[in-house]
Amino acid sequence: MLSSMFSGRFPLRRDASGACVIERDGHLFKFLLDFLHGELHLPGDEETRAAVQREADYFGVPFPRSLTDQLAMELEAGAEREDTPLRQALGDLCQAYGMVCAKPAVWVLHYLSACGASCESKVLGVYGSQELGLQAMERQLGSKTNSRCVHRREAGGNVQYIWSYYSRSELGKMMDAFDSWEGRGVSFWRVPQELIECWTLEKRPLQESQEPLSPRHKRYGPPASLSSHTPSR
User: Fold this and answer.
1) Which residue, 147, 150, 145, is CA-closest to 163?
2) 143-170 pLDDT, tens per residue?
3) What's the number of CA atoms in the CB half-sphere (13 Å) around residue 130?
4) Which of 63, 66, 182, 216 has the fewest beta carbons under 10 Å from its own?
């Protein structure tokens, strides 16, 4: 709207001093002018913020609703100028502030039992945090948690409980890498004659999408509740 007004295609109203006259709320318009001059001032109350958004809508100014919106706009614009993938620009920003962009992961609770020729293996649950996974593991173990027949071990941030009447040394002879477990699953290289049960809580990364990130918005429009509002003249 502003660029069209001053394009020379339309006549402008001027006052006695020659200044252009824009019949809008001057208090609200100042927020837009400051933003166009490189200074972002967000209104303190929600009512004024909504009114400024309506003014921004009317003039076609991409006024951000929050500092988060402003940061996203600047990041997207900078990535576009530098011809840098948005995902890389976001990673560079995190690194500059010493932050870690965590990779999405889940905690998988796995159960394995073996006795002679019988073997059972199944996933008991998938959890969003280690804490939730440990709680589920304790419920599965029940009273076996404090049993003398239970061996607990940790490696790589993963946790495993093994219930068996075999001693630790006997298990070491039967189970692959018992004393140098690296935190991933369990395997037997000698078939147990007595029952062995094993619960393993293992962190597994989710497959991250390789699709390039797309900008959230080229322009931040008003929410639905404001879009149908016609500003008063």
Assistant:
1) 150
2) 888 888 888 888 888 999 988 888 878 8
3) 11
4) 182
- Per-residue DSSP letter, 175: B
Please tell me the chain's helix, strand, coil percentages from 3-state DSSP, rounded to the nearest 5.
Answer: 35, 20, 45
Contact predicate 34/40, CB 8 Å: yes
CB of 158 closer than 8 Å to CB of 203? yes
The 10s digit of each residue's pLDDT in 172-204 is: 777 766 777 777 776 666 777 888 889 999 988
Distance, in Å, from the CA atom of 101 to the CA atom of 30, rounded to the nearest integer, reads 37
b or e along 179-189 (b: 16 or more beta carbons within 10 Å of the residue's beta carbon)?
eebebeebeee
Please, which residues bridge with residue 108 across strands? 126, 202
Triad 164, 180, 196: Cα angle to 5°: 15
Q: Which two tokens stand for residue 130?
A: 């280690």
The pTM (predicted TM-score) of the whole model is: 0.48
